[in-house]
Each structure stands twice: as C-alpha cells, then as structure tokens.
C-alpha cells in the first residue's frame, strides 16, 4: 500500500470521528434543552401549587377569624337549652316568675325539668332562710304550673309556718300524706307534721280559743291522729265549764297559788290592800296585828276563840267600815285581829263570814274564784 492510500484512509477516519463527536455533542445539547424545559415546567407547577397552598392557608385563616367574630351566635344556635336555662335563672333572680315558669313549662315531663325544679327549689329555700316574702309568691306561681308537685307543696307548708299560719301548714302536710310518697319523703312529712302540730297545739292550749281548738281537733280526727286529741278534748271541756260558770257567776276573781293554797287581794276601808289566804275552813276573816295598826276599826270584843285551818286561836273581834273584792264589797264587816304565825306573803285569812254572802265556786285547776251575790 502506497503512501497516498494511507493518507486517504487516515483522513476518512478523522472525518468520521469528528462527525461522530459533533453529532454526540448535538444530542447532548438537545437532551440538556429538554431537561431544562422539564425543570422549568416543574418549577412552574411547584409555584402554582405553592400559591394554591398559600391561598388555602389565607382562606382558612380568614375563615377562622370570621368564625371567631360570630362565635357567640353559633354557640347559641348549638346550645339552645343552656341558653334557656340561663334565661330562666336570670328571670328568677329578677323576680319575673311567670316568664321564668313559661320556660320551665316547655320541659315539663322531661328529665330536663328536674334541673329547673332543683334550681327553683334551692332559690326558694334561700328566700325562706332570709324570711323574704318573695318565697311565697314564687312557690305559689310554681304550683299554678305544677299543682301536684310534692316538694313544692312541702315548701309552701314551710312558708306558711314562717308566716305563723300553722293550721294552713298542717292542712297541706296532711294532704301530702294522702299522696303516693317514697319512704324518705314520707319520713320528711311525718317529721314536719310532728313539729308544726306541737307548736300549734301548745299555742291553742295557751290561748284557750275554743273555735280553733275544735277546728284543729276535727282535722286530727279526720286524719286518725290522736297525738293531741286527748289534751285538746280536755281543754275544750274546761273552756265549756268556764263558759257555764261565767253565765252562773257574774264575778270572776283570779287567784294566786301559794303551795296548796290560794291568795286573794282584798281592799280594806277603801285604801289598804292586803293579801289573804282563801280559807273555807275559817268561820271568820282574820287579820294580822301588823295590818290592824294601819286601818280604823271598832272593837266589839277583846278575847274570843276562832277556828282556823291551823286550829283554835285567841283574837280580838272588831268591825271595819268596808271590805272590797273586785267590784263587790260588804259594809260594816266583822274581822278578828290576832298574831298569826304565817308567811309574810299574806296578811291573814278570808273566812266563811265573807264567802257565805255569795254563791261561790273555786276553780282550783285554773285558780279562779267565781262569785254571785246572794239576794
């Protein structure tokens, strides 16, 4: 092979290698362009996604702000029962009982009503403790809606007690006993009845009001309660006896008890007050010597024997101008004067020479002397 051929072959190889290199470079440049284009598109997508994400965050933030602004309205819509209960409480505190109970009436018969009742009862008890007259108005308004509520009726009886309307309280409690009660409530009613019955019975027995005693006795009998029946019946009989005696005797003198005796106050000669023991065993009225020094009298006989509850005694028989007892009196009245060994609490004895001038009766139980002047 000659030199020319070798040179030609070398040139062809060189041209081929150069063409291959440049073609490869072209391909690489094209690939780079494609990659760059893809990256640009990806970046655009990321920017769009990022913008959308930012827009969502901004929208969510704005929504939260908006929700915060209207939060009270949304809570009210979500919790209407709680809002009504709050309004119910506010109305009670204001004393607006009818609108408050209008709200309560919407829940009657449901478990929610118990919540309203408990609050109302506690509020009523607080008013009772403060002796606030609003307690009566509140519980009466409540019972117009729930007329058969046992605890409401019980609270009404407590208010009537506080107002000293004991009979009304007793009637309410006896009515409640007719209801179906659980053991705990029945025990509460029984205990309250014992308390108020005792208070009212003692009040009536002290007042001696016959009509009220009879009304109370009828209530006790109608409810088969004999706790105070015997005492009340006995008191009514006493009152009836007093009424009879008042008709039979026109003078009524209250006596003072002294051990087993009775003391009566007498007026001598229109000015001297003395305390004498009522002595139906003495034939004549007797005065202590110390009293004789303070009154005027006329001596009838110096030494006589007198009968007294203590036995025979020596005395001086005298006559005083006047002896008075209550609104009645006797003139030229004979008494004896002697040294009587008696307590300083009385000044002598009022004997039969005074009492026999009258139709008389001594009510020992009530310490009363009844007199009616004999004609």
Give a verbal description of the structure:
- The protein folds into 2 domains: about 160 residues, Serine Threonine Protein Phosphatase 5, Tetratricopeptide repeat (Alpha Horseshoe), CATH 1.25.40; about 120 residues, Cathepsin D, subunit A, domain 1 (Beta Barrel).
- Helices cover about 60% and strands about 20% of the residues.
- Strand 3 and strand 4 form a beta hairpin.
- It contains 13 helices and 11 strands.
- About 5% of the residues have low confidence.
- It has a 6-stranded mixed beta barrel.
List the helices and strands and how they pair.
Layout: H1 3-69, H2 71-78, H3 80-94, H4 97-105, H5 112-129, H6 134-145, H7 150-162, H8 166-177, H9 183-207, H10 210-222, H11 229-248, E1 251-254, E2 256-258, E3 261-268, E4 272-278, E5 286-288, H12 289-292, E6 298-308, E7 311-325, E8 328-338, E9 348-350, H13 352-355, E10 358-363, E11 368-373
Parallel strand pairs: 4-9, 5-8
Antiparallel strand pairs: 1-11, 2-3, 3-4, 3-7, 5-9, 6-7, 7-8, 10-11
Helix pairs in contact: 3-4, 3-5, 4-6, 5-6, 5-7, 6-7, 7-8, 8-9, 10-11
């Amino acid at each position: 092979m000659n030199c020319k051929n070798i040179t030609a072959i070398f040139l062809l190889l060189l041209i081929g290698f150069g063409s291959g290199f440049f073609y490869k470079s072209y391909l690489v440049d094209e690939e780079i362009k494609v990659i760059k284009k893809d990256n640009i598109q990806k970046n655009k997508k990321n920017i769009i996604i990022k913008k959308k994400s930012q827009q969502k965050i901004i929208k969510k933030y704005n929504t939260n702000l908006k929700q915060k602004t209207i939060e009270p309205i949304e809570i009210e819509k979500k919790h209407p029962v709680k809002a009504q209960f709050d309004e119910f409480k506010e109305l009670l505190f204001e004393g607006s009982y009818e609108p408050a109970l209008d709200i309560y009436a919407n829940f009657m018969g449901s478990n929610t009503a118990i919540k309203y009742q408990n609050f109302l009862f506690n509020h009523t008890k607080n008013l009772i403790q403060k002796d606030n007259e609003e307690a009566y108005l509140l519980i009466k308004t409540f019972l117009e809606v729930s007329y058969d509520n046992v605890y409401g009726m019980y609270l009404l009886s407590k208010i009537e007690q506080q107002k000293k309307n004991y009979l009304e309280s007793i009637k309410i409690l006896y009515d409640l006993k007719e209801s179906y009660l659980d053991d705990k409530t029945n025990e509460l009613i029984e205990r309250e009845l014992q308390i108020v019955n005792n208070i009212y019975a003692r009040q009536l027995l002290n007042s001696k009001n016959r009509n009220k005693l009879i009304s109370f006795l009828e209530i006790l009998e109608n409810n088969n309660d004999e706790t105070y029946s015997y005492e009340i019946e006995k008191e009514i009989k006493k009152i009836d006896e007093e009424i009879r005696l008042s008709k039979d005797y026109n003078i009524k003198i209250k006596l003072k008890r002294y051990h087993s005796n009775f003391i009566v106050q007498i007026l001598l000669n229109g000015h001297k007050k003395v305390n004498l023991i009522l002595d139906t065993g003495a034939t004549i009225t007797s005065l202590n010597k110390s009293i004789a020094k303070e009154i005027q009298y006329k001596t009838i006989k110096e030494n006589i024997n007198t009968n007294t509850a203590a036995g025979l005694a020596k005395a001086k028989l005298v006559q005083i101008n006047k002896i008075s007892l209550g609104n009645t009196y006797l003139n030229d009245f004979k008494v004896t004067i002697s040294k009587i060994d008696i307590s300083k609490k009385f000044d002598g004895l009022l004997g039969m020479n005074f009492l026999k001038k009258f139709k008389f009766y001594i009510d020992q139980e009530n310490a009363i002397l009844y007199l009616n002047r004999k004609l």
